[in-house]
């Protein structure tokens, strides 16, 4: 994991300052999902009275909700997309949430992503700065280790930067 020193650093060609972090918090708080469709590759699921069959194409936010509720079981059955979005927003905005910036290893070249982890409920939010979208919301079993093993991960010192 990289160290944050002083009032700014460079990662993947992006200069990160306290002002940039504040801007990212504001943008990530909007909880915007991609507009593209994702293929549901799991089992048939009935959610809010609608059956989503395996291989169906569904909106990104809904795909993540269904995965977190029915596959990972991180949220209870009956959770709505609005509730998942609110949990994401509260996580991003919570003053005790840990903030990480790193290179996402599944893209070539790596893309700059931001991780927000509130250890108390264990909720993590991934914000893709380049796409200006939420990549996912989940509850990583390994907590902060998930973020520490990403490319060039740097944990933002919220106290030092007054964020």
Descriptors for this entry?
163 residues, 27% helix, alpha+beta, globular, 2 domains, two-stranded antiparallel sheet
Can you describe this structure?
The protein is of the alpha+beta class and 163 residues long. It has two domains: 9-34 and 97-161, no CATH class; 37-82, no CATH class. 27% of the residues lie in helices and 31% in strands. The protein contains five helices and eleven strands.
Quick rundown:
Helices cover 27% and strands 31% of the residues. It contains 5 helices and 11 strands.
Topology:
Blueprint: E1 9-11, E2 14-16, H1 18-28, E3 37-39, E4 45-47, E5 50-52, E6 57-59, H2 60-71, H3 81-93, E7 98-104, E8 111-118, E9 123-128, E10 133-138, H4 145-148, E11 151-155, H5 158-161
Antiparallel strand pairs: 1-2, 3-6, 4-5, 7-8, 7-11, 8-9, 9-10
Summarize the biggest pleated sheet: 5 strands, antiparallel
Counting DSSP E segments of at least 2 residues, the number of strands comes to 11
Strand order in the sheet with the most strands: 10-9-8-7-11
Helix-strand category: alpha+beta
- Give the H and E element order: EEHEEEEHHEEEEHEH
Total tally of structural domains: 2
The 3D shape can be described as globular
Low-confidence segments? none
If helices are DSSP runs of H or I spanning 4 or more residues, what is the number of helices? 5
Q: Provide the gyration radius in Å.
A: 16 Å
Helix percentage: 25-40%
